[in-house]
Every structure is written in C-alpha cells, then in structure tokens.
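Appendix B. One record, verbatim.
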Amino acid sequence: MTVYVDVVFMENLFMNYIILFATAVINKVDIKLIRILLSSILGSIYAVVSYTDILSNSTGIIIKILLSIAMIYIAFKPEGVKKFIKQLLIFYLATFTFGGVAFALLYFVRPGEILIENGIYIGTYPIKIALLGGIVGFVIITIAFNLIKGKLSKNDMFCNISVYINGKRKDMTSMIDTGNLLKEPITGMPVIIVEKGELEDIIPIEILDNIEKIINGEVENINNIEEYINKFRVIPFNSLGKQNGLLLGIKADKVIVNYDENKIEKNNIIIGIYEKKLCKNNTYKALIGLDLLDGSDKKIEYFRNVKV
C-alpha cells in the first residue's frame, strides 16, 4: 500500500482540529482557533513521523503522552492542575470516540484496505471519511455529555455566589437546583432564590420587613425605599401549599458564581426574596439554576411558573 505523506498530514490535521474543538466545547473554555490550529499541526507532524522508523516502540507511549500534554497546553493554556487534568481526560475521551467512529466507517467502506503501521491505522480512503468520522464523533460525544450534565454528584450540588446590590456585597452558599427555571415575567431574567435573612447586610431592613406591602404597591410610609423602587420585580410562582404566589424580587447589580474553579459573572439577575428557610440545617441559603453555570449572559424571552 502506498502512503502519501501529505494525505496523512491533512487527515490528522482535520481530525486533531475537530477533537480539540470538541474538547473546548465540552470543557466550556474560550475557543482560540489559531491555538487549536497550531496544536493540530503539532499532532499531525507526529503522525507523519510515526510512519518512519525514527521512533522506537519503547519510547512511543511516552512520546504520545508528552505530545498530548503539549497539545493541551498549546490549544487551551489551562490554569491550574485540576483544569489541565480535566481537559486532558476529555481530550483522550474525544480522541478514542472519534478514532473509533472513523475506523468503523473505514471498516464498513473498505475493510480489505486497512493497514497498521507503528500502531497507526491507515488506508486508501478519502479525507471525507476522516471528516465524516470526526463530525459523527462530535455529535455522539456532545449528545452524551448533554445527557449526563444534569447528573451532578453531591459535591457538585453547591457553589459560592456573591450578590451585589447598590454597591454592597453578600457572599453565600447556594445549592444548584436543576429544577429552578424561575424567570422574571417581563424581561425573562433568571431568578436566584435567597433567604430573607441573608440579605439584611445589603438591603434595608425596612424593605425586608414590608415585603407584602411592597408587592401590593403600599410603599408610601416605607423608609429607605426610594433608591430601590426601580429595582423591584414581582415574580409569580407556585409552591407546595401555595398556588399562584407572588415573590418580591430585586435586580442585582451583578452576581458572581464561583463553581468548579470557574468565576462566572452575571449582570441580568433577579434576587427573589424567600421569607422561609430553604434548608433546615443551613447548608445553603440560596437556590441557583443550572443554566446560570454556562458562562453566558442571555435574556430569555419567555417564562414559566415552577415550584420553589
């Protein structure tokens, strides 16, 4: 079988690029196309060299591990060991998935023309087979991660948030509630549920003690309310034992979510004031929706009532 170096290089370049792109998407890191391209070129050069006798079998595994480490650093430049290990594991998972899909397609198309050289599968198949394998693998691995992203372990159920209102800050522990889809009905801004007692340091006590009056529009005799009037929102909700309830919300200046070594800043967030306890043992003081951990800051145009 004749092996063309340029074909091998291009096939691996395409596959490496798709694998690194998928790794970035799954890990939700900033995608810098030029860095991914440079990393892909490095992997393609190694693939070409692998067809020669320059590298011995005894050093091949070590070089492959070092190569994958270098590719991750070039493509993403991870901060911290934990992020690096996570990205490296996802990279390996994507590589195995994409490689398996591409090889399966090759086996079905031209099973008699497969050659193994220095542990590398090659064959007289067009680049479109490699591309198709990469695309199919990308779809498979993306769907798989979307299916399991809501299945959080116990340690992943909590995060630390910082709420800023009128220049004041309050830090608290929040539980990640996959069922919290509560939205402000007019703008569609997400709502974070917070216990009333946690807000005493950043919201005047006169407001917290007169929540029902504010919801009913009876604000004439409430002190220290003027600068908060434009921030008030009324959120409809349903809860156990109370149908069609109303929750007083205040638009935050910003909310910073610290989760899994990521610092996510949100500007369009409503703080819903909850007058009861969220947790009997005070493990957490707030409820945050899973959609607030994706790093984006979108306004959603629809809303729905959910159980709190």
